[in-house]
């Protein structure tokens, strides 16, 4: 059996312009065709509707609308799906069978508030959602857990600042990079009347957590910058979301190092999800040119994106200026 | 049709059989070796749908942390040769949600061809609520991928590795990867809060992997499962009792299975860990034994300790 690595194509310098044709001609139709009768999207065409892929599909299709365009029917039905999926406590569950909310609550609030029109129409849903987000404290950094750790004879092997508090994937667990970034994106630039009193404090704590969890030299992984004295390896997806959530601070050393890490590693990205998000990240930080060895079409030929709706949506989002869709309230 | 999830306590089980085969490198022809080992178990695979669950944990250009693609491909070919109607490959990596990036980094497509209709990302599969009968952890239920629950035969296909929190990661710990990240995140942190050892028991009692093949050609020692050191062992370990397979792997690694919490507990409800209940076939353990280093917290696992 031949296990000689395939020859890598030579990188080419490409303009970091919006990747319009592939996104609009291949990915957007894929998203439109995959919408379920209930208005939501599954992770794959034909799969049951879930909150997360519905959020990505909505974000993507909304980004294609010209400014001032009225909502398309698909977008209206998608938002209606989200409203119907919200739980009584204001949170959203990962699946309709689940009765407890989780990290997708941030995504739903972010997406519903994506336009000024949406912010008015869905203001109550957003307000209760953000209230749940601000009340969802991670368990690991609470007073009791920190005291237990201090009293424990077991050495702590992960290098963390226990005072930093972000958000977990599910309630009652630890803080991690991506759910913290999503919560920060949901809270940023919201209409102040929508925000719970804790919002500002939680934002500052969340930002501190992201900076605390950065890998040495720049970039983020899921949230383990160092374990047993060994530096963690950054990954594209968490680095993208952390940098987008922290884009208010482009001059900070951590941001500069992390953007540099992304630029340096762009040409070695091997999958479409990371490729799309890295493009978005670098565009959001004003980069104009990148060195790449494959484009969106090349990635599609390999494994058809594994029919992943989230990946198709991220690819659509590369077709527009990220500043136009990143701000939750439509502000930049 | 959902898989039969009835548990048979270990004391009611006949002795388990575990086969150890030498395999010096990934470059050698593995297909015949794996096929002939599977034939010895006479698995009922004709016209059945098989799910191979490798251990894909992260970007791995050097090929040291994930199940090697040569082993995955040869196993897939062997099950097809045995008459399986379909052999899927599925995993839900725990630390990185870009599963396709991991697949590309391990070069699985080079060995198997386009993966669009062969590989299932279990992190984003359709799901079903599963009550946890064993209640070893505080978790009363978990959502599980329908591909795992609906397939005829689940094959755990891990790499031979030490683990800095669980002691070892073999065919039982490998099943953490069936728990969907879309519900529980990356990592699946709720399992850590529930207690890793207990969660391993609950997941395996719920899924009941039918067969295990451990890639021990090159394993990992020390600070595994990601940041450890490659350790050549030159063996593949097969069995239809994953507990017995893992216990055998521990002995191959120079570790005491009864001192690994989840394995000791699994030995009372899911399979056999006692050497006198495991019929060893193929190579002797002593012939392939290669002492694996562990992190300081697990120094008590070593046979010499």
- Strand-residue fraction of chain B? 15-25%
**Rg of chain B to the nearest angstrom?**
17 Å
**Largest sheet features of chain B:** 10 strands, mixed
Share in helix of chain A? 40-55%
The radius of gyration of chain A is 20 Å
Helical run tally of chain A: 15
- Span of the ends, CA to CA of chain A: 54 Å
Shape of chain A: globular
Count of extended strands of chain B: 12
Which H/E pattern describes the elements of chain B? Answer: EHEHEHHEEEHEEEHHHEEHHEH
Record field, number of beta strands of chain A:
4
Mean pLDDT of chain A: 88
Entry keywords:
heterodimer, A: 332 residues, mainly alpha, two-stranded antiparallel ribbon, 4 strands, 4% strand, globular, B: 305 residues, alpha/beta, ten-stranded mixed sheet, 12 strands
Topology, please?
The complex is a heterodimer of chains A (332) and B (305).
Chain A: E1 12-15, H1 20-34, H2 51-63, H3 73-85, H4 104-112, H5 116-121, H6 123-135, H7 143-151, H8 177-187, H9 199-212, E2 226-227, E3 230-231, H10 236-245, H11 253-265, H12 272-284, E4 289-292, H13 296-303, H14 309-317, H15 323-326
Antiparallel strand pairs in A: 1-4, 2-3
Helix pairs in contact in A: 1-14, 2-3, 2-4, 2-14, 4-6, 4-8, 8-9, 8-10, 10-11, 10-12, 12-14
Chain B: E1 16-22, H1 31-39, E2 49-54, H2 69-81, E3 86-91, H3 99-106, H4 108-112, E4 119-121, E5 127-131, E6 141-145, H5 146-150, E7 153-157, E8 159-163, E9 167-169, H6 181-184, H7 189-193, H8 196-207, E10 211-221, E11 229-239, H9 242-252, H10 261-269, E12 278-282, H11 285-288
Parallel strand pairs in B: 1-12, 2-3, 2-7, 3-4, 7-10, 8-10
Antiparallel strand pairs in B: 1-11, 5-6, 8-9, 10-11
